[in-house]
Automatic annotation (TrEMBL):
Classification of source organism: Bacteria, Pseudomonadati, Pseudomonadota, Betaproteobacteria, Burkholderiales
The UniProt record lists the keyword Repressor: no
Keywords on record: Signal
Signal peptide: 1-35
Coiled coil: none
InterPro entries, A to Z: Clan_AA_Asp_peptidase_C, Peptidase_aspartic_dom_sf, Retropepsin-like_bacterial
Name listed for the protein in its UniProt record: TIGR02281 family clan AA aspartic protease
Length: 227
């Protein structure tokens, strides 16, 4: 067999796997542990240590100045921690949903509370503008029938339902919204509830909120996309 023929012979599976692993380690700076975290959250605080959940794994304890999985703890208080990941500084609220490291400032949406503590924002449903109030107690996005009609939503294909309130049972319709946009974040096929009673604001419920990262810090709420 010629030298060129030997160079062109097929690799064994084991040899190919070793080559892929070597390239992967090289791309990560020689050590797979240096791969940047994709999400990080503050689960608790023990003295001068923060309890961080990184990429959904087991909680890790860090002191200020320490780095684990590319996450460096910069500051720690009773209710929040400041970390740095890949040169990006992030503030984590205690018990808040983990933040996506990949979300840039341009991708985050920041809401500010009104004097009564409510977060009200302009949203777009299927491209139409609607003012909504954040309500983590609402299972779905909730609209009145009048609001749904103004948006041009088709309720004929919805599913009949009912909602129990202090004033009795209210007829309702379950539908799916094609597009819901809040600031820079747009989600598709979002479940919603249309009720037969007037509402001052539509409710931005958990059918939207549970699909984004949400951090609540005093009168400030930050929403960022999940990856």
């Amino acid at each position: 067999m010629s030298k060129s023929a030997r160079l062109l012979r097929p690799w064994s599976a084991a040899r190919a796997a070793r080559w892929v692993l070597a390239c992967t380690v090289f791309a990560l700076g020689g050590n797979p542990a240096f791969a940047a975290a994709a999400s990080v959250g503050l689960a608790g605080k023990f003295g001068d240590q923060a309890l961080l959940v990184i990429d959904g794994g087991a909680p890790r304890t860090l002191r200020i100045g320490q780095t684990v999985q590319g996450v460096k703890l910069l500051a720690l208080s009773d209710q929040q921690a400041t970390v740095e990941v890949s040169g990006q500084k992030m503030q984590l609220g205690l018990g808040a949903a983990p933040l996506s490291v990949g979300a840039t400032a341009a991708q985050r949406t920041v809401l500010f509370a009104r004097s009564n503590g409510q977060f009200v924002t302009e949203c777009r449903i299927n491209g139409e503008l609607l003012r909504m109030m954040v309500d983590t107690g609402a299972t779905r996005i909730t609209l009145s029938r009048e609001q749904a009609q103004r948006l041009g939503l088709n309720l004929q294909n919805g599913r009949a339902s009912a909602v129990n309130t202090a004033n009795g049972t209210i007829p309702a319709t379950l539908i799916d919204l094609d597009k819901v946009r809040v600031g820079h974040i747009e989600l598709h096929n979002v479940p919603a509830l249309v009720i037969n009673t007037p509402m001052p604001y539509a409710l931005l419920g958990m059918s939207f909120l549970q699909r984004v990262n949400m951090q609540h810090d005093g009168d400030r709420m930050t929403l960022s996309p999940r990856y």
